[in-house]
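User: Could you check the structure of this?
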Amino acid sequence: MGVETGGGRKPRQITLMTYGSRGDVAPFAALGLALQQRGHSVRLAAPHGFAPLAEQYGLEFVPLPGNPEELSREFADQAGGSWLRMVKGMTAHVLPLARGVFDQLQQAAQGADLIVHSFLMTDAGHTLARRQGIPDVSAQLFPVFLPTRAFPNVAMPDWPLGGGYRWATHALNTAVFRYGARLMYGQIRRLAPELPALADWPFAGRGQGQTPVLLAYSPALLPPPADWPPYAHVTGYWPLPAAPGWQPRPEWVRFLEAGAPPVYFGLGSVRSQHLPRLLEAAVNAARACGLRLVLGAPQAAGWGGEDVCVVAEAPHEWLFPRMGLVVHHGGAGTTGAAAAAGVPQTAVPFSVDQTFWARRTRQLGLGPAAPAARNLDSARLEEIFRQGVEDAQYARRAAELGQRMRAEDGLSAAVSRIEACLDLTSSIGRNL
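Assistant: Sure, the predicted structure tokens are below.
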């Protein structure tokens, strides 16, 4: 992982706050593990279903109420690419849970020297940090709340309207999130007036006193724009290592060694009504092309055979380098893992940031384009499989990018930024 223990610093208590699917939680678990290896105490607040994940890596865990699979299904099947529909769905999901979530977050923040929060936890994490007089850091898996003229907001199309349009998309979507969250929290406080008022918006200015932002993706995949503020840092990815003692199943190894690198088709932890249809389409497309297929989905248990292997859950860092093509849902972590593996990839997005990463991989020439998941069929998948495996340009570009990304150490960079924030706070405290 690249993160060393010790360093001569006083160990600190750090609380990590995130919400969502495994793709939203795993990078925070990886960061927590890296911080622990530096001697810090780490507490992870995440949906209650991830307690076993935290236990595997020895992380103190604070469970948050709610079922993120419901939120995932809402985004996949209803929100689509619409930011407004996403906010509506998020509100309907979060509002009944908000009081319980905030109570658990207060517990997680007790005694902390610093809070690291995901974008969904921006207001809660920042408010709790301000109440306790401690610093906070925003950790984002894709660029949020950082206006730029270089590319549009993740929820908006990249129309050829210039830098002004792109900047405006960021301003609009930040306003929707910022003021929408405050309206929702106002409803919660009417029911629970003892809750604190939200603190100031942490990204309102551009000075050095702003909440630092750590962006957990590769600068080789998406370089930081020149017009970003100095408190935004693209660190590289935060991959979660295989669980202690993990070994691939023998039947997986036999399948992979039995022929040419297969095609991978998996849609992460998305729970969509389209998933059974898409799995069947992938099998039909691979057989039409004469290609072997790895299905990365627990729902595909009945599809195994001589030409199809079901790998329900395996570390992408182990699996993807053994593939000839990776077709996935466009999640930030999966996109990064496929890119670091140095193999061609195609993203089949369901919603929001997935569409952003799908567009970015196309721009880099890493694989053939694909429609949104709801519009994908076996005929289009067959074209994608053939092009992705046969086009040498995709393989060359993917290999070049993978080599650059494997030289990065995003976790070490993130830990260094967090420790610098703690050091600065300690220095200010000593001088008061």
